[in-house]
Amino acid sequence: MPLLNENYQNLEESYLFAEIARRVSKYEEAHPDQKIIRLGIGDVTKPLTKKVIEALHKAVEEQAVSETFRGYGPEKGYDFLRNAISAYYKKNGADVDPDTIFISDGAKSDTGNITDLFGKDNVVLVPDPVYPVYVDTNLMDGRKIVYMNGTAENDFLPMPDPSVKADLIYLCSPNNPTGACYSKEQLEKWVAYAKEMQAVILFDAAYEAFVSDPALPRSIFEIEGAKECAIEFCSLSKTAGFTGTRCSYTVIPKELVFPASNGAELSLHAMWNRRHSTKFNGTPYIVQRAAEAVFTEEGMAECMENIEYYRQNAKIIADVLRKKNISFTGGVNSPYIWFECPNGMESWEFFDYLLTHAQVVGTPGAGFGENGKNYFRLTAFGQHESTAEAMRRFEELF
Ligand code: MLT
Questions:
Q1: Domain of residue 289, residue span
Q2: Domains identified in the chain, total number
Q3: Are both 283 and 319 inside the same structural domain?
Q4: Counting beta carbons within 10 angstroms of the beta carbon of residue 383, is it exposed (0 to 12), middle (13 to 18) or buried (19 or more)?
Q5: Are 101 and 213 contained in the same domain?
Q6: For residue 163, what are the contacts with CB-CB under 8 A and spacing of at least 6?
Q7: Which of 17, 25, 289, 345 is the most buried (most CB within 10 A)?
Q8: Residue in 15, 41, 113, 379 to alter for ligand 1 test, most ligand atoms within 8 A of Cβ
Q9: 218 near 92, Cβ under 8 Å?
Q10: At how many degrees (to 10) do helices 347-358 and 16-30 cross?
């Protein structure tokens, strides 16, 4: 009889977005005539851009001919893509060596799988509220999690507390779900704290393309000294609409070397390389070619046009919330809008209320942590028409 990983008993029965989907389909089955508008999961609605589609077609044709056909690719990803990503970092003010970039199939997979590199006895510092994958994957391993509060008082941007010891620190900026974004000075404090603690920051930059304020950092590597204490995860899901196409990248600097208990020096870069080449066989060639197209001047301009479209949706949502005197964060440097549930409702109660009275789906704040239990998240990734219709229904209801 196998011994099971009993830590799974410490998880909620289902993953947040699976639970939302379950409740929505149950409602849909009972009310097949009602038109449900989904502003819950942060899934894009704009199709892939012209440049990306062209690159995909071209790569598909290459795969049809023996001279250009490619089988297994290099384990870290193709040079053409890693060089393009490194150049993109440079343009945004961060110096990232292509050799430290690993191509993968999603920031969700990598932020989850990175736990493989760390012992079970590490203390993990996680903001509350935040993207649930960090908590769930550490619970699966049985690690001790220490939460740091993100509240309206600190603009949902918890700062380091020198009296709290941590080995691993998750930061997500622009934040999912609050949309709050750390300033350069704040990230400098995090880097200083991590170095003091000899901790590693696991920095999720999946929403960096939404940063419109040029003073705000888009990468932890814009901060001096970050290469000695940080790993960064980024993805094309939100930047370029790759949620169904799957491509992401993770930067692990070679400076991240820590002593093992037997005195050996272990490099996180080398360990991830070992893990990646053992448990993963790479993002498909055609997808990497499509991703390369995102980083061309024209390709990025097309993606920015889509992001601008989503920004307009954020404005539609924000305008109604303002009109109703509901305070909110996000929506400017982020596709998410985060607000306190009206009428003192708790977030799952508000979820059901909004679904049954307006047929609008959002994400209950409780799914992101204890501090979210009276909050709600709406995404700007919908279509204009449905976002406007959802907010018309919302306006009528309150
Ligand atoms: C979200 O809605 O929080 C995200 O879409 C989830 C994800 O990117 O995995």
A1: 50-297
A2: 2
A3: no
A4: middle
A5: yes
A6: none
A7: 289
A8: 41
A9: yes
A10: 30
ipTM, interface predicted TM-score of the complex = 0.93
Up-side HSE of residue 17: CA atoms within 13 Å toward CB? 12
Residue with tokens 């790479």: 282
pTM score above 0.95? yes
Average pLDDT, the chain: 97
Q: What is the Cα–Cα distance from 1 to 136, expressed in whole angstroms?
A: 26
Indicate if 189 and 304 belong to the same structural domain.
Answer: no
Ligand 1 closest atom vs CA 43: 5
Inside any domain, residue 159: yes
> Residue 326 is part of a domain; what is its CATH number?
3.90.1150.10
Measured CA distances, 241 to 37, 245, 356 (Å): 19, 8, 30
- DSSP H helices, 336-383, are 347-358
Backbone angles phi, psi at 376, to 5 degrees: -145, 145
Length of the chain, in residues: 398
Q: Is 131 annotated as a binding residue?
A: yes
Residues 199-236 have pLDDT tens digits of 999 999 999 999 999 999 999 999 999 999 999 999 99
Atom number, ligand 1, closest to the C-alpha of residue 238: 8
Last residue of a domain, one of 256, 272, 297: 297
Band of the pLDDT at 13, cuts 50, 70, 90?
confident
CA 220 to chain centre: 14
Is residue 1 included in any domain, yes or no?
A: no
**Predicted local confidence at residue 14, as pLDDT:** 84
Q: Are residues 122 and 63 in the same domain?
A: yes
Written as six digits, the tokens of 171 are: 């930061």
Three-class DSSP category at 222? helix
Nearest Cα neighbor of 98 from 328, 216, 253, 292 is 253
Same domain, 129 and 239: yes
Answer for the pair 246, 287: CB distance below 8 angstroms, yes or no.
yes
Nearest to 186 by CA among 146, 223, 131: 223
Query: Do 346 and 304 sit in the same domain of this protein?
Result: yes
Ligand 1 pocket by Cβ (under 6 Å): 41-43, 108, 131, 176, 237
pLDDT of 271 reads 98
